């Protein structure tokens, strides 16, 4: 490569760098707003990824990462041959499917219903009521459920007894664990999930509704032919992100519901990592489990995004 070509490339890079700096200075307020989120993800998400290296080691805390023995894929092989692996995988996938099929549509339906409310005071009141559970921790949500569903003076079992039926041990039952889990997720998160959909609906051109009314469309037809198509891209993006959490159901909620009687249907990867990693000190093995979860989530997000683009949607990238 000639000196002239090298010089041209250097000049081009310098121009690009100076152009970038000018844009940053011009939009400094926006970049300052981004900064806290960037720092958060850098410190708590990206820097800790360097610790994934211990998934390929027999990590010993007193030796450190640099001096621990390399074992290659040993922990991943152990994971796939563990007697509990397929039970944990089944439980995780079943709970994810329940979330996707029964919880995911609920915020959309709630947002559509709220969008049809014309009295501003009533709409704000309902929004406030359904948002409140999101600000309560899972400890509070599960504790309230325990009080209501307890065999000993729980209000639900008291009502069942008043009807002359036998009390149900909801908290220790394999059959009732999944419905109880689903109802708690809907109770806590459904209202909060409506925020993005309501924001998307607020951006719809009111002229579309006026034109449809002139054509004789009722409220249901307007919702079906205008509102839903207008927020379809938002639904697709949130669905793609949801699919990425296929093995990431959240530790705290499941752990609070988990007990020796329902472990067969309640044990998932998150609680298994806690048991193996923190309680038993198997740091390398638990890291391998977490690594496996992340890889599966990444592959599914990429596949879902590719599929969304194939059917004409924008996707997330």
Automatic annotation (TrEMBL):
Q: Which family does it belong to?
A: Belongs to the binding-protein-dependent transport system permease family.
Q: Which InterPro entries match?
A: MetI-like (IPR000515), MetI-like_sf (IPR035906)
User: What residues does the ABC transmembrane type-1 domain cover?
Assistant: 89-304
Q: Where are the transmembrane segments?
A: 29-47, 93-113, 125-149, 190-211, 288-308
User: Which keywords does UniProt give here?
Assistant: Membrane, Transmembrane, Transmembrane helix, Transport
Q: Where in the cell is it found?
A: Cell membrane; Membrane
GO cellular component terms, A-Z = plasma membrane
Q: Which GO terms describe its biological process?
A: transmembrane transport
Q: What is its membrane topology?
A: Multi-pass membrane protein
Name-wise, this protein is Multiple-sugar transport system permease YteP
Alphabetized Gene3D superfamilies for the sequence: MetI-like (1.10.3720.10)
> Which gene holds the coding sequence for this protein?
yteP
Q: Which CDD domains match?
A: TM_PBP2
Name the source organism.
Paenibacillus abyssi
């Amino acid at each position: 490569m000639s000196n002239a070509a090298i010089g041209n490339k250097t000049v081009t890079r310098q121009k690009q760098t100076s152009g970038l700096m000018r844009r940053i200075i011009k939009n400094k307020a926006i970049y300052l707003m981004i900064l806290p989120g960037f720092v958060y993800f850098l410190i708590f998400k990206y820097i800790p990824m360097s610790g994934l290296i211990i998934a390929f080691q027999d990590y010993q805390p007193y030796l450190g990462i640099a001096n621990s023995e390399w074992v290659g894929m040993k922990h991943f092989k152990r994971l796939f041959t563990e007697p509990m692996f397929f039970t944990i995988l089944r439980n995780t996938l079943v709970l994810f499917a329940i979330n996707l099929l029964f919880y995911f549509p609920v915020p959309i339906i709630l947002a559509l219903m709220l969008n049809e409310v014309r009295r501003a005071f009533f709409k704000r009141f309902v929004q406030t009521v359904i948002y409140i559970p999101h600000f309560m921790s899972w400890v509070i949500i599960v504790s309230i459920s325990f009080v209501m569903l307890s065999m000993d003076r729980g209000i639900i079992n008291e009502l069942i007894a008043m009807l002359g039926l036998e009390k149900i041990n909801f908290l220790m039952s394999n059959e009732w664990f999944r419905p109880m889990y689903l109802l708690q997720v809907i109770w806590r998160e459904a209202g909060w999930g409506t925020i993005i959909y309501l924001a998307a609906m607020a951006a719809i051109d009111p002229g579309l509704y006026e034109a449809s009314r002139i054509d004789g469309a009722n409220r249901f037809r307007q919702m079906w032919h205008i509102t839903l198509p207008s927020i379809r891209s938002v639904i697709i993006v949130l669905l793609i992100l949801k699919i990425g959490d296929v093995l990431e159901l959240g530790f705290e909620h499941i752990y609070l519901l988990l007990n020796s009687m329902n472990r067969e249907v309640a044990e998932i990867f998150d609680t298994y990592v806690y048991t193996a990693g923190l309680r038993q000190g198997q740091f390398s093995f638990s890291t391998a489990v977490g690594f496996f979860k992340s890889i599966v989530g990444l592959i599914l997000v990429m596949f879902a995004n590719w599929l969304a683009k194939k059917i004409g949607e924008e996707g997330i990238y």
